[in-house]
Amino acid sequence: MIRFEGVWTLEDRLDQIMRELAFEVPPGTAALTVRLSFVGGVIDLGCGGPDGFRGWSGGARDTYTIAADWATPGYLPGELEPGEWHVWLRLHRIPPDGTPYEVTVTLRDRAPERPETLTPPVVTDRPARRDGLPEPSGMRWFAGDLHAHTVHSDGTLTVPELAGLAVKQGLDFLAVTDHNTVSHHPELPGVSKHAGIVLVPGQEVTTDYGHANVFGDVGWVDFRRPAAEWDPGDGGVLSINHPLSGDCAWRHDVPPDARARHVELWHSSWWDRTWGAPLAWAALWRDDTVALGGSDFHDPSQHKTLGEPTTWVLAEDDSPDAVVAAIAAGRTAVTPGPRGGPILLRVGDELHALDADGTVLCGPDGRRAAVRGDRVTLPALGTGTHRLETDRNEVIALCG
């Protein structure tokens, strides 16, 4: 057993928030187990091997195991490469009097048995989809949620359980965005096929100064790098998450020419949508913002509901790649939920306001117009986010 112990101080955190504890893994090692204990504060936990990222659980766990054929959720299974490994620690919260800690690393020549996990059958009874939406030839509107977590980070549901709940909520797709890890990605195709729902590979790049979702199977994004370097490249989309949500608000300094176009403007924390601060933030961020929505679902016992809000995408087919491509192109809309109520959709240069009689259309350039009728087609008012409001300035629908 390898042991590290000491006291992290507030000065340590301010000097360098990410810390690495190095240890050697000899040839023939079948598994390793890391345990963290500390008193006071909050320390997040992860792991890196000689070939790079091997997992992250943040503050959700104090123990993890990595073996050839299984690993603790949040971590990548696989052969243990001989050489220098690191326990990753993020000094998330360190009080003025310091945080005593102990880390132990146990190396094994035989892998422990995989813990048994019991997952209920996937729910397959889906509510009727919303119909009558304007769809150009070869394309279709799909309803989904772009922000949800599982046991691979700090959620309480397995991937199959989360997929089953999404089907029950009437969603067509779901982005699974566990914190700072991609360990859930290998599960998604099989669960997607079994549950009958599109599961989009995602990750929530999570730091003390803000979070961002990355959509697409683009590999792990290193949250330790400056935010301006989180570009997922071709085939991926980066979106700033909940920019005004408490201690998770966006505070990274990103040059204007490196700012992401996509923003999770409608987050479950925006419970009073007469509060205009998210709209003001987005207008200052950049003038062609693409508005997205996400519930940030973790646990059925929370106040958050999967699919509230709902993000709609106009996609060519029901595949993860098509959903991500639609997001990248800005063919998106956001509503409070997947069924009923006013909705605002953009198709080309036209806006379609459905079931929105008596609302107000607001353009990105400040122009406003009353909506009269349940199926109204209007010209788009420029580039950027359009929205529907009530007569008391409550936001009830968004579109790209």
> What is the makeup of the main sheet?
13 strands, mixed
Q: Mean pLDDT, rounded to whole units?
A: 95
Domains (count): 2
Number of strands: 24
CATH architecture of the largest domain: Alpha-Beta Barrel
CATH superfamily of the largest domain: Metal-dependent hydrolases
CATH topology of the largest domain: TIM Barrel
Feature tags:
400 residues, mainly beta, Jelly Rolls, TIM Barrel, four-stranded antiparallel beta sheet, 5 helices, 11% helix
Q: What this model shows, in words?
A:
With 400 residues, the chain is mainly beta. The chain folds into 2 domains: 107 residues, Jelly Rolls, CATH 2.60.120; 200 residues, Metal-dependent hydrolases (TIM Barrel). The strands form 4 sheets. The chain has a 13-stranded mixed sheet with strand order 15-14-13-12-11-10-9-16-17-24-23-20-21, with helices on both faces. Strands 1-8-3-6 form a 4-stranded antiparallel sheet. It has a 4-stranded antiparallel sheet with strand order 2-7-4-5. The protein is globular, with a radius of gyration of 22 Å.
